[in-house]
Amino acid sequence: MADAFDHTHAPRLEDPVRLAALPPAAIVELLRLAGDETVVDYGAGTGVYTVAVAAALPHGRLIAVEALPQLADALRARLTPELAARVEVVETDANEVPAPAGVADRVIMVDVLHHLYDEPAALAQVSRLLRPGGLFVVVDWADVERPVGPPLGHVLGLARVREIVAGMGLVELEAHEPGTLLPYHVVLEAARP
Which of 124, 187, 127 minimizes the C-alpha distance to 161? Predict the structure, then answer.
């Protein structure tokens, strides 16, 4: 079973070296937003990327899904009143997300897949939430040496990410090795048929 994220490591989510390697603006760009979409940030953590995406949705909505109460509380504390009006924080229990099927135009998963790649219920929720034609974007640590991030034995390479996403019934659109779009991350974009 994959290793669950340890909430005591939450400060690492906002490490300046990590944010330089994976800037929030890059996540927003990957989502190709018009500003009125519904986006699910699955595994939102402390919200550093959630806030950036929500700011790019002036007429949209963001559902921030987080399993760890400590991280969900940190995310809520980060939201301004304006953003809080567009962001719904959902503390998931057993990977259940109380939202209608097909609610999301986009689902983003940043540095999360390596924690739940072997949890079929979580992956099924992601597929369920995505509308037909909707975009799923996975950004996760690559299996390369790097100055930040989890140990190499705890991450997935692009080939494994591709297998997981295909197993979710999604169709791959684009895939990027580390060093192309981002220095230490693989990026995979897929759509629900």
Answer: 187
